[in-house]
Structures are given as C-alpha cells and as structure tokens.
Amino acid sequence: MHPIAAFAALATVLASSLLVQAKTYYVDDSCTKRDQWKGAWDTAMRNAKRVSTRLGSDTDTDFERVVKILFKIDRSDDRYKKIKEPFDDILSWTEVPKQVTAFETLKPADVRIFCDNDAIRQTKDFSDVHGPARWNEMLKLPPKKLERYRDVKKYTFPSTVYLVPNANEYISSVILVGEKPWCQQNPLPDGGNFNGYASYGGIRAVEEPPMIGNRPNVQYGQKTHRVVITLCDYLFKEKIDFIDILNPQPLIQVEDNLDWDNMDYDRRDMEAFESLIAHTILHELLHAARPDIMKEDEEQPGNWVPDLRFPDGIGDYPDIKSAYNWHNLKGMDTDTAIKNADSYAELGLLAMLADKGYTLRRVPQIDPNDQNGNALREQAEEAAKDGYIGKYVDITKRALWMVARRFMA
User: Fold this and answer.
1) Does the record's keyword annotation contain Signal (predicted)?
2) Considering only CA atoms, which of 230, 117, 208, 131 is closest in space to residue 164?
3) pTM of the prediction?
C-alpha cells in the first residue's frame, strides 16, 4: 500500500490555463543524489510515453481491453481519449534551467519534486532559504501546545496569508498546525506509511511583492500557483515480500530488477509490480498534471468537496484507503476511476508489461456450445479482472511495431 495524498483541504482554484499550458518542473538534488532515482524517473517517463502511444493506437486491442477492465469504457466512449491527455501533458513538460542557487532555480517551476523526507531544520533562522531542509519548528501554539512547522523556503503551498507589520503588502507563509509534515509522521499509528504526496496552490495565493517594507523580498519571483511533490524516505527503503513465508523476496523497486531476459512473469498478478518507485512517481506526476481542485462546502463550512467548475482533476478516490492497488482499482466504476490517480498509473505498468509481451489474461477462443469451454472462459475473465497477466507472442505483431516506429521518429 502506498498512500500518496494531496493537501486536499487546503487546495485552491488554479487558473484554468494552468491545466493546459506546458509546464516546467524542478527536481531537487535530494532526489537526484539517490541511487534509485535516475532509473525510476526514466521508467516513469517511459511508461507515460508507452501509455500515450498505446492509447493512440487503433489496433492495440489488448490495451483497449485493459482500459475496459480498469475504467469500464471502450474506444467508442469520448472519455477514452481524455484518459490520454494527462500523459501527454506530462510528456510536454520541460525542466527549468539551473541558476546560481537551487532556490533561484525552483522559483519559476510549475512542478517541484523533492525527496527530502520533509526534513525539519535545526536552525531557527527563518531568513535562511538556502539550507538543505525546508521546515522549521515554531513555538507551540497555546493553550493546547499544538505543534507548528513553517516551510521557510515556501517550496510548497498551501499557504496562509499574513499582513506584514509596517508594510502594506500581503505575503504567504506555509505553516502546518497540529501535526508534523507528512513524511515525518512515518510510521503511522495504523502501521502504514506515506510514500509521498502532492500539494497544490495556496488557498489565498498572492504574488510575492519585490519588497517587504524597505527590504528586498527573497521570495519575489515564486510561481504563484504551483504543485509540489514530496517523496518520503520510506518509498526508497528496501522492502521484503512475505507472501511466501518460507521464501521471502525483496519487493521490486526499479525496472532493472525485473530482469526481463531471464525472468518469466506469466501468471503473475499486477500487485507484484506496484512496488516500483516509478509507479509512485508517475502517480504523483498525474496529480500534478491534473490538480484535484477543492472548495469549501457551502452547506457544511469546514468541509471540502470537489469544485465542479474543474471536473478533470485527478485525486485519490473514493477515499485515501481505497484508492490504491489492483484489488481496489478493479471494482471502481467509470466516474471514480476517471478521477483516480492510481487507475491512470496502473496503465503505466500495463504499458510497460505490454512492451515485454505481457497483458491481462486473454479469454480463449472456445466453442460457445462447449459447456466445459464456457467454464474456462469464465475463469480466464475472472483472472484478468483479478489482475493476472499472461505472455503472448502476438502482442508485438498487433501493437508494438507502432511503439517502435514512434520511438524512432
């Protein structure tokens, strides 16, 4: 299980143009310095490309069936084409050019990616924006002594707006009250862990002024509406699969560990591949491509509900405990799957597997009058719905030649 959530209750309405314009992104060195990062990032982006290519193919009947099982729609439905859009969005992003400091580099980025485990700084100097950690612990809030943490670099929203003393300007400051930053909460009381999360633009976001009083504002130039992806240490930690208690095996985290040339994954299930770091990265990129915009419920102030003016948001549905892994995805109706990030990310795994000759178990061609044959058909259909895959020699003939052609173009 990898609960990856947005700060939904503090999300804001982003400008609609942000959803369609090509974005820029920044990857922090807390990610690039990790041994698994490059392979995982490359796989995530390849999988986005693989999905886009297969969804754009008129001959890839295996992948159309995959979409049918996950999203309950086929190519004749207009929503089928919309599934492709967030993947194309991700593929259009460009990395921001490097500046003198990491802080200046990230300022214009629409999407910022960190693997810093929400590190909390030891220094109390709120003016230092160039250290490796983002969060400062503040004085506890009386009378309940609530914990408070401020993101001094303002890498992330949500934000609260304050009136600066002696200055007629509003600035934003990221403060969490009552809890630590999410990665710092691991392990959770229920035994789970956060792999990471995405946070969206500030609820009352304003542009940073160039000056605060008579002092230059170091935050000037920050992108007003931005999405921040934070990946926790837990995501990169080696984990063991104890399904076979007598022969526990490391969970697969990077594509190189799949050893395609020497391993046979026929009759394996999809959850065997969901431990890939690339799967979590693509999941978060999908959140960033289509932020799930929320608004305060007019009938129940304090509760937050989807803003229907922005119907294309991709969040974690139907709820944070039921939004992940094949056993939850397979039963989702179209309206739930079409706005659930892990349903899209699962397509990335299936497109990766298709490139290697695997797809969900096919239903054999059997005489419909053969009663035993009908039982076999039903078993195969259930196996596919349960996420079991098979290896087939004709996948390459039916679809992969298009993938090869487009990659060479």
Assistant:
1) yes
2) 208
3) 0.85
